[in-house]
Each structure stands twice: as structure tokens, then as C-alpha cells.
């Protein structure tokens, strides 16, 4: 299969959010943050629409991967150096969407955000905030194509890359692209473990 990658625009927000919601529905962190299986898909759509609208599209690059059939199979959201975290104004503008999506779990979301912010490296880098593929096409080369484009961007600028993997099983996959685990991050109150991974430019 030939996978084509292009940059997203504001017209693509709904499609991008749908793929990311599908990709992260069974994610350990998302399951812990939104334990209700029936609510999670709707909550994730709302959270990703918020992130895209108020941060990712203005703070970096959002890449979309298509298969031969023209259907969107995967998405990667990168934040450029110095813009990995939303500004106070962006956070305030997006707060209603967060409250709607998380409801009574807003404290859990704030705990995760605080933990990740505190642990985030201060060295300038490209931040791979989210990368995911539709489960129906997983294994079809979409992730490889997305990482290839994003990491080429990093290497061209001689800039490191950083991500947090929420699944231990994915560590070996990211290691194939040059990432290495820096540390383990435990979500407070008995939440899952995330793996902070760093890649030097190649």
C-alpha cells in the first residue's frame, strides 16, 4: 500500500479528531481519565477538537496519512520548539470544552496535565503530542509514514524530538525510529505509567 501524507488545515479538524479518538479509545491513560466506555469516544472527540482548534494547528504541524483508497488512516500532531504547551489564553478559551468532555473527571485531567508539564524537557525540541491510526488499518504503514515525515522535519532542523508513550508495548516501535526511554512517569492516584522518550537528530 502507498501511504500519502499531507498537512491538515482547519477544514480537517473533525476528520482528524475522529481518527485520534478511534486510535486512543483503548489507551490506558484515556481509559483512566474517562472510565465510562460509552462516554469515552464522545469525550475524546471533543478533547481533540479543542486541542486542534486552540493549539496544534497554530503551534506546529498536524500531518494526515491517506491510503490508496483515499481514506484517512492516521494522524500525527507535532508542536514546534518553544510551543509545546498551550498559552494561558489558549487554555482559558478551551476550558469549556474540557469541562464538557471530562465532567467529574476534570481533576484527573488536571493531574495528568500537571505531571506531564512538570516532567517535560526544557531543551528545545519538536514534541510529538499525539500519533494514532484507525484500528481498522493499523499495521498498514500509516504510523511509519507519519513518523518519517515528522522526523525528517526534525533532522533537517537538527532538532531533537520528544514523546510520551502510554503503552509499554509501543516502546520497541519508537526505538526503531531512534527514540530512547528517558524516564517513567506515574499518573497520580494509581493511574497508568507513561514512558518519556527522546530522540536526538540524525
TrEMBL record:
<dbReference type="InterPro" id="IPR016181">
    <property type="entry name" value="Acyl_CoA_acyltransferase"/>
</dbReference>
<dbReference type="Pfam" id="PF00583">
    <property type="entry name" value="Acetyltransf_1"/>
</dbReference>
<dbReference type="GO" id="GO:0016747">
    <property type="term" value="F:acyltransferase activity, transferring groups other than amino-acyl groups"/>
</dbReference>
<keyword id="KW-0808">Transferase</keyword>
<dbReference type="InterPro" id="IPR000182">
    <property type="entry name" value="GNAT_dom"/>
</dbReference>
<keyword id="KW-0012">Acyltransferase</keyword>
<protein>
    <submittedName>
        <fullName>GNAT family N-acetyltransferase</fullName>
        <ecNumber>2.3.1.-</ecNumber>
    </submittedName>
</protein>
<feature type="domain" description="N-acetyltransferase">
    <location>
        <begin position="3"/>
        <end position="200"/>
    </location>
</feature>
<dbReference type="InterPro" id="IPR052523">
    <property type="entry name" value="Trichothecene_AcTrans"/>
</dbReference>
